Amino acid sequence: MGQEKEKPVVVEGEERLRLTRVLIVDDSDSVLEPTCLYLEWALKDYPILSAQNGEQALKVLREIVTPLSEQGVLVLTDLEMPVMGGKELIEIVRGDEDLRSRVKFMVWSGSLEKLREIEKAYPEIPRYLKPMTGRQILSELKEILGQER
Q1: DSSP state of 97
Q2: Are 78 and 109 in contact (CB under 8 A)?
Q3: Cα 88 to the center of its chain, rounded Å
Q4: What pLDDT shows up at residue 16?
Q5: Could you tell me which of 140, 119, 127, 102 has the C-alpha nearest to residue 9?
Q6: What is the rounded CA–CA span in Å between residue 133 and residue 139?
Q7: CB 88, CB 54: distance < 8 Å
Q8: pTM higher than 0.70 for the full model?
Q9: Cα separation of the two ends of the chain
């Protein structure tokens, strides 16, 4: 099988950005580890990064995202985590001039109430109710990354 070339994905507004990495953020090892392993296998062209809370995710984003880069990061984050939750992570990234145009979010949660809060605050962010299978996550990621299913 030949490698597919990454396709540009629109991130916030008219700016064209190529999403080249995926960051999975979840405090549960039983969710984070198998999800990352499955996605590393299934999305071979995309480095899969992980963090166990929003604070760690923010540190990873600040290390890998550069202001002049046309490459971005797709972040799938849980909403309820210790230290910093997903909503706070989104708020900080959206307020950071260097990050906001280079990060696209997806959120997942076991709480329908938390997902509704995100829907009100950020209706453009895709939201998913846990639990999700690896195939479901992969399907949604591929759609956002612009790949064929």
Answers
A1: T
A2: yes
A3: 14
A4: 55
A5: 102
A6: 10
A7: yes
A8: yes
A9: 15
Is the Cβ–Cβ distance between 103 and 93 less than 8 Å?
A: yes
Cβ pair 76, 25 in contact under 8 A: yes
Copy the structure tokens of residue 50.
Answer: 């992980």
pLDDT at 5 over 80: no
Strands, DSSP E only, in the chain?
Answer: 9-10, 16-25, 48-51, 71-78, 103-109, 127-129
Query: In this structure, what are the phi and psi dihedrals at residue 39, rounded to the nearest 5 degrees?
Result: -70, -35
pLDDT of 9 strictly over 90: no
Domains of the chain: 14-145 (3.40.50.2300)
In whole angstroms, give the CA distance from residue 131 to residue 18: 28
The kind and range of the H/E element at 93 are helix 86-95
Dig out the tokens for 88 from the structure. 């706070």
* pLDDT band at residue 1 under the 50/70/90 scheme: very low
Better-predicted residue by pLDDT, 3 or 80: 80
